C-alpha cells in the first residue's frame, strides 16, 4: 500500500475570528495519487487547500483545530516558501498568470526557488513543453493574449518548474470548454503516471474530476459528507443525483 503523503486531520478554519468555515475536515492523500476534493460553491474547497499551503493568513483565516502533516511532519507553522522547498505548490483558482509577461517568462518565475542551477531548470522547462506542446508554441506570446486554457496550462506549468512532489490544484476546469478541460486533466493524469506528481484537486466539476482521480472526498458546508474510490463515487446513486450535474 502506498505511503501517506498528506494527512489532514480534523481541521477547523475560522475567518476573521468569527466565521467558522471548516468544521473538522479530515483527508488522506497517498503518495503518487490524484485525490479530488469535490463540492459546490462555498463548500470550503479553496479554504482546505489554503490551509494546507498556509495561505490563510493573508485572507485573515486560521486553522483553530486539528493538524496537517506532510509525510508525518506537522506543517501548520511552515511558511508557503518552506512548503515550496518541501515540494508542495498551490495553483490558485483563476489561473494568475502574469499577463504582461510571455508564457516562457511566466514559467521561469516558477523556478525562482530552485537551487540546482540553470541547466537543470532548462531541462525542466523542456519537460514542461513536452507535456504542454501548446505552451511551447505560445512561448513568446504575452500571457494576457493567450486563451483561458493556455493560461491554465501556464499556471500548472509554472508550478511544475519548481519540481514539486505535490500540486494543489484549485478548480482547473473553471471557465474552460469541456474539450480543454479534458486536455488539461489528461496532462495532469500523465504527469501523475509518468513523473509521480501527487495532485490534490479541488473541483466543482464532479463528473470530470472523478474520471481522472483515484479517490474523492465530497465537501458540503465545511464537512466531508462522503468519500471513496473515484469509481465507486461516480457510480453512487446519491452522488449521481446531487453532484454529477454540477460544474
Ligand atoms: P468556490 O468554488 O467558491 O471557491 P469553495 O468550496 O472553494 O468554493 P471557499 O472559497 O473555501 O469555498 O469558501 C468557503 C466559505 O468561506 C464561503 O462561505 C466563503 O464565503 C467563506 N470565505 C472564503 N474566504 C473568506 C474570507 N477571506 N473571509 C471570510 N469568509 C470567507
Automatic annotation (TrEMBL):
Keywords per UniProt: Amino-acid transport, ATP-binding, Cell membrane, Membrane, Nucleotide-binding, Transport
Single GO molecular function: ATP binding
Pfam families linked: ABC_tran (PF00005)
Superkingdom as given in the UniProt entry: Bacteria
Keyword Transport found: yes
Domain ABC transporter: 6-246
Gene3D superfamilies the UniProt entry points to: P-loop containing nucleotide triphosphate hydrolases
Keyword Ribonucleoprotein annotated: no
Family per record: Belongs to the ABC transporter superfamily.
Name of this chain's protein: ABC transporter ATP-binding protein
Upper classification of the organism: Bacteria, Pseudomonadati, Pseudomonadota, Betaproteobacteria, Burkholderiales
